[in-house]
Amino acid sequence: xxxxxxxxxxxxxxxxxxxxxxxxxxxxxxxxxxxxxxxxxxxxxxxxxxxxxxxxxxxxxxxxxxxxxxxxxxxxxxxxxxxxxxxxxxxxxxxxxxxxxxxxxxxxxxxxxxxxxxxxxxxxxxxxxxxxxxxxxxxxxxxxxxxxxxxxxxxxxxxxxxxxxxxxxxxxxxxxxxxxxxxxxxxxxxxxxxxxxxxxxxxxxxxxxxxxxxxxxxxxxxxxxxxxxxxxxxxxxxxxxxxxxxxxxxxxxxxxxxxxxxxxxxxxxxxxxxxxxxxxxxxxxxxxxxxxxxxxxxxxxxxxxxxxxxxxxxxxxxxxxxxxxxxxxxxxxxxxxxxxxxxxxxxxxxxxxxxxxxxxxxxxxxxxxxxxxxxxxxxxxxxxxxxxxxxxxxxxxxxxxxxxxxxxxx
Amino acid sequence: xxxxxxxxxxxxxxxxxxxxxxxxxxxxxxxxxxxxxxxxxxxxxxxxxxxxxxxxxxxxxxxxxxxxxxxxxxxxxxxxxxxxxxxxxxxxxxxxxxxxxxxxxxxxxxxxxxxxxxxxxxxxxxxxxxxxxxxxxxxxxxxxxxxxxxxxxxxxxxxxxxxxxxxxxxxxxxxxxxxxxxxxxxxxxxxxxxxxxxxxxxxxxxxxxxxxxxxxxxxxxxxxxxxxxxxxxxxxxxxxxxxxxxxxxxxxxxxxxxxxxxxxxxxxxxxxxxxxxxxxxxxxxxxxxxxxxxxxxxxxxxxxxxxxxxxxxxxxxxxxxxxxxxxxxxxxxxxxxxxxxxxxxxxxxxxxxxxxxxxxxxxxxxxxxxxxxxxxxxxxxxxxxxxxxxxxxxxxxxxxxxxxxxxxxx
DNA sequence: GTGATACGTTGCCAGAGTCAACAAATCATC
DNA sequence: GATGATTTGTTGACTCTGGCAACGTATCAC
Lengths: 410, 410
Fold this sequence. Notes:
The structure is a homodimer. Chain A is of the alpha+beta class. Chain A has helices at 6-23, 29-36, 40-52, 117-134, 171-179, 188-199, 259-262, 265-272, 281-290, 294-318, 328-335, 337-347, 350-353, 367-382; strands at residues 27-28, 56-59, 73-76, 80-87, 91-98, 102-110, 138-147, 150-151, 158-161, 166-169, 183-187, 208-214, 217-224, 227-228, 322-327, 357-360, 391-392, 406-407. Chain A folds into 3 domains: 6-76, Arc Repressor Mutant, subunit A (Orthogonal Bundle); 80-190 and 366-407, 2-Layer Sandwich (Nucleotidyltransferase, domain 5); 201-360, Nucleotidyltransferase, domain 5 (2-Layer Sandwich). Helix content of chain A is 40%, strand content 22%. In chain A, the strands form 4 sheets. In chain A, strands 4, 5, 6, 7, 11, 17 and 18 form a 7-stranded mixed sheet that branches. Chain A has a 5-stranded mixed sheet with strand order 14-13-12-15-16, with helices on both faces. In chain A, strands 1-3-2 form a 3-stranded antiparallel sheet. The interface between A and B is large, with 67 and 66 residues.
């Protein structure tokens, strides 16, 4: 129970303004006064401090049809960036994401085999070193890592990443030592929620459930009462291992009858006669929608009914506003949305399911980069007065490795 | 995203101090200084304001063995009270609970039949009117109602209380109109969590799950990341309707194979040969522990295994610090704690279950009164500067209806 | 009794947000 | 194109809050 003093007050107000322009996009000063309830002069002073610190920029006002003096637009800076890292079985992706939401660059480093933690650190540090030589005028806040596995929130230790074969790897510490930048790590699915919550299908929601279907299983995360649920040690969100069936079918953790054991991408690919290596999420969805095979419909129905058991349980316990489905679960849902809705309704309390939306994830391939960057930005958003000593050069957008200029909607 | 101004700052700090002494018990000024990080002079001023408002009292310091000037003890007032109301099928209970945690009075009004909402309001208002004639020197903050059913958080509308046969009853509004006091209502199980969280088995926990087994079903609530989960409309916590079995056994809501359908007090009473009307929670627990009947053991094992499915699901999704079991579920757990632990461990991810405690609820018969009072106190705790116009006389403790002086540990 | 220790009290100070008056920039109207 | 209405930024005086340091006070140990 920390008390609040004057410094905290200023910090809080700076934090609120920076969060607003970062999360909800650019806003005029007049809008900020209305949103925060603070005085015009206060907003002026706060924005001036943020400009001074290089965190936001003021643009000339949009031409509006209203009478009155135009209000300058306050926007999060493009020059303040976080580095987002996502190690996978066949590649390591590094993104440069700006506070404004723009994904400046996206570098994919393909690996011939699944990297060890040490290799992943070396490769990532190498990519970042390459970037540094090129960097100027940009301020790097820190590094966020999206790990496909269980990550201890406390210190970023990767407890278990089955897909990569990592156990108890101090990934965060290693990368911090190798780069000298602050590093934060979290489970990829929980970062998916973060991204969808702020910039995707969950915008403005305080209670949402997110389930992501990947090739190796089902993960997810949740936001409860406006707070991202981490749990005791950051392991919350493992929807894949909820029991939904009495069958003996085991999942990757050896538990029988779980969601992940019954609802799989591989089973869908098999009835469709598709190869995993050639099928991305969109292809799968198109194939499911195009198919008129009875076997496909039966498999879709079977999987949807099991998914409904898990979702209904979550609805009863959490009474969310929205359930966001990503990965192949989005495709599965798209194949027969009504069946899923009806099945969840049948298995949950009417009052609790009342008004719950089931929606596909909106952010595509940038999902994890945005989520990981958000993780790295958090420290800055909490305290915009933090001294950030790490500023590196990054001239224009002439990348050395591989450039994917991209952005996500605000 | 509300900004914070000077008034908010003061309010926050007053709120923090009042919460501390209310929730964690009396503390010396010196302790408050350390806990809040605020300056000694600030604490002095804040405590003085709270004393001025009659919310806290300063007592002479405890004799301590330390050198130095003794620090006055700051304690929440006994004279500031909330009225807690709990309508049930055969009685309406009203409690007078002080900010200090003392339950001054407890009045149980037995009804010959299950009361309608209007009757419940009339009876409650009558009891409160009787109290008012007697009241002096006490300040009544408001009324909190613990309703055995679904309550819409928004306005306290009782959507559905199956046990009482109520549907869409504006209980809160009616009682507010009848008494002129502010009224807040919530689901009884979710108030149970509140009580256990602050004063019982969940003290200091930020992630806890609470399941309560009652005669008519299983309800519960959860705290996620330090926030009580209400959900979109306050219906969160319905653990009873989670599916745990493939059987066709239906629960009160008509859903098959749910926790509430498989795990029931009645089934335990039946194998024990006990009558519901004569068996309270303690009796049930003693009978279960004393029994050496194979049928009883089998039924206990069957129910524990189903309970484990629900708990494992919750563990995987929420990664809590503690699972608190109340009502007959506490008795069930006590009958074979190891079996439950092992079964939950087998059905959940090792990392997520690691360190999770399963504990019985600590607060007994005062649970709901304390939870309901806490609900009513919340407005005051949020803003100790709130003008409270409602002060009524209450001379000594000479009750007119039925008095149960009692208190709960702090 | 004396010193050490811990804590409350007091008066002064700095910092943050508020307020009101004024200036500036736009639109609508004549 | 001048005028007024409207909205908003700017400025300086003001208020309130917590911090700080010096001082006073109450206890313990010797």
